[in-house]
Amino acid sequence: MTLRQSVVIEALAGNVEDKPKFIEQAAGIGLDAIELLWVDDEFRELCEVAIRSGMRVASMIGQSSLEDGLNNPANHDQIEDELKASIDVAVKWGIPGIVCFSGNRITGMSEEAAITNTATGLRRVAPHAEKHGVTLNMELLNSKVDHPGYQCDRTAWGMAVVEKVESSNVKLLYDIYHMQIMEGDVIRTMLDNLGAIGHVHTAGNPGRNDLDDEQELHYTGICRALAAAGYQGYLGHEFHPKGDPVAALLQAYKRCTV
User: Fold this and answer.
1) What is the separation of C-alpha 135 from the centre of its chain, rounded to a whole number of angstroms?
2) Could you tell me which of 17, 12, 16, 20 has the C-alpha nearest to residue 46?
3) pLDDT tens profile 168-197
4) Which among 46, 61, 168, 202 is least buried, having the fewest CB atoms inside 10 angstroms?
């Protein structure tokens, strides 16, 4: 089995002047899809370029705040509206996955209460996601380096939420870079929880840069394990290239083609 690979445009080509050309180059490399962060002035154009290039848009962010998230019931009305609107956009453009966030830890709130709150918020949106065939992927992020205070910072925490929601359209975005920082044991953890992982992101650690030999993760081995286990989602490259982004993407694509 060959993994489907995508590229997060904002990460690899955020400083590229001609993003449509970059997308065409990514298609030429063999990438299956692009990922966009949110609906902005470039969104429609980049979606259209990807489709013309024989690619699809694999994912987009569905809520406005990473820090003020689903763990706070006071945010549920707003986030429900945002996620439902994002699902409607996803349907229009054939986007299978929407990224959502737990939010940062709240002083005085127990972990169990935060899990329950987050699951409650997701249950409000899950029927709309199920109706339209879109998956809500709650992202696992590190709270040690990049996102201090973020609550869904371990696989077990995210799994507890997914299990409470009980919807096949609510899963986790397993970011290999972030989880290497927080807990390591990447292959075993992903395989043990594969049914609840809807999307995967890559980046080299330390540094969040290229998937090269100067970082510690063995991406060929990781991808072989995912492919052998039958992972059906996308493997999205979300690193910051040290040099030429096209060359860095080509290297990542070859390393993850197994």
Assistant:
1) 11
2) 20
3) 999 999 999 999 999 999 999 999 999 999
4) 168
- Token pair, residue 8, equals 């997060």
The closest alpha carbon to 114, from 147, 67, 152, belongs to 152
CA distances from 247 to 151, 236, 237 (A): 35, 16, 13
For the record, the structure tokens of 59 come out as 């994912």
Q: Which two tokens stand for residue 53?
A: 């290039």
* Virtual torsion, Cα 202, 208, 214, 216, nearest 10 deg: -60
- The 3-class secondary structure across the chain, one letter per residue, is CCCEEEEEHHHHHCCCCCHHHHHHHHHHHCCCEEECCCCCCCHHHHHHHHHHCCCEEEEEECCCCCCCCCCCHHHHHHHHHHHHHHHHHHHHHCCCEEEECCCECCCCCCHHHHHHHHHHHHHHHHHHHHHHCCEEEEECCCCCCCCCCECCCCHHHHHHHHHHHCCCCEEEEEEHHHHHHHCCCHHHHHHHCHHHEEEEEECCCCCCCCCCCCCCCCHHHHHHHHHHCCCCCEEEECCCCCCCHHHHHHHHHHHHCC
Predicted confidence (pLDDT) per residue in 67-79, tens digit: 999 999 999 999 9
Could you give phi then psi for residue 181, rounded to 5 degrees? -65, -40
**How distant, in Å, are the alpha carbons of 5, 198, 200, 254 from that of 1?**
12, 17, 16, 15
Q: Are 162 and 206 in contact (CB under 8 A)?
A: no
Is the pTM here over 0.85, yes or no? yes
